[in-house]
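Bug #2210: token dump truncated for Trehalase family glycosidase?
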Amino acid sequence: MDRADQATSPHTTAYNGARRVLTGNWVGASTVPSRSLYPHQWSWDSAFIAVGLRHLWPVRAQRELETLLAAQWDDGRVPHIVFNPEVPLTAYFPSPDFWRSSTAGAAVGAPAGRETSGLVQPPVHALAAWLVHRADPAASARRGFLRRVYPRLVAWQRYLTEARDLGGRGLASIVHPWESGMDNSPCWDPPLSRIEPVGSDTFHRADLDHGRRADRPTDLDYGRYVRLAEHYRDHGYRDDTCGHPFAVEDPAVNALLALSEHALADIAGALGRDPSDHLVRAEALTTALVKRLWHAESGLFLSHDVIAGEPIPEHSAAGLIPLVLPDLPAETVRALVATVTGPRFGLGERTRMVPSYDLTGPCFDPARYWRGPAWFNVNWLIERGLRRHGELALANELRANLTRLAASSGYAEYVDPFSGEARGTRDFSWTAAVTVDLLADPPPPAGGELPAYRPAALVPAALD
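Reproduced locally. Full output below:
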């Protein structure tokens, strides 16, 4: 292919479209997920966004993570939303005046000069930081990037492994569905059924001002979300005395926690420090994940309801995320691959991307938020997991479908897993970011990491 053909190829068009989204959603120190629906900074969004930004503007990618970590609480938690004070309170609910982090969270170290939420999201940040560093090691070293973020990332990990080990089983618990990142998953229906919702007349859902009701959580679900958040806030965001009414060990959160320890080992090594503590922790988390959450009969990992003391019998894409880990038992890997291609998720047969929930499940809905649609960040993780374990043909097919559907959907928040029809908002930042990441690098071999390489035709002019 000559340069003229390459300039108009579908890959180049998709790459440039994704770059346009990331440029448009940059707000000076970070990137909003969406200009309309999500006008603040979100935690795991910024991690995925940084992974894409590293190919375009490596210093901007570093700033993305630095801005988020600047709002970290003294107890180590990284809040799931960092609020922009210039955005009107009516633009998003729950808004800063609901969370009241600087006052309600003062006793556990919420920052006094910045309003945030009190919840967290999955820990993808150490992986993002390591990939961002590798994109331009010279710029990273010049700015002291790894040296500055490493202690914050360690504190974040320790908060999850210590304060959030609510079940005492060596795994972190989420205390609200929003902390899973997969907010409205049917996995949360059983533990949520114990929660008395607040009335829908007590709050205004700003999400419905920008999205179709059929794509979003129901008012009943939202009422329970609000009740849980109020309870946590009114108990000062303290995990030791809160008496959490919702506590779940989620396989995706814990797999990413283990993966982050591997990334921290790499970061420690780059800083000339001993990485062995991180490797030991990664092994312990992986062992606990397999021992506690693996469900052989289902062929995937199940969430565990800590309060009820039992597994949650719902099958979601969260149970496939442990594929990203390097040290899973071989029989577990084989079972996960069979599940992702089997009737529950249908990859390569019925679906073009992995759906967020079991196709055969009673709650499957291809349109509604996290109850069936396919999400680009989740599929990015699964693609990495499949490639890590040698499933190259399947990984390549998923990579091609992901980048093709991202562009054709207008970089949608999520898509119908069968048709690829756009759902949610458009010009969504992490969709653009993972598209850039997958198109900027050639597919790595089995077990390999993404190389620091960009085809010349896709390299933009540097802005930082």
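Output looks complete on our side. The beta strands are 41-42, 81-82, 248-249, 294-295, 300-301, 304-305, 310-311, 374-375, 414-415, 422-423. Marking as cannot-reproduce; reopen if the truncation happens again.
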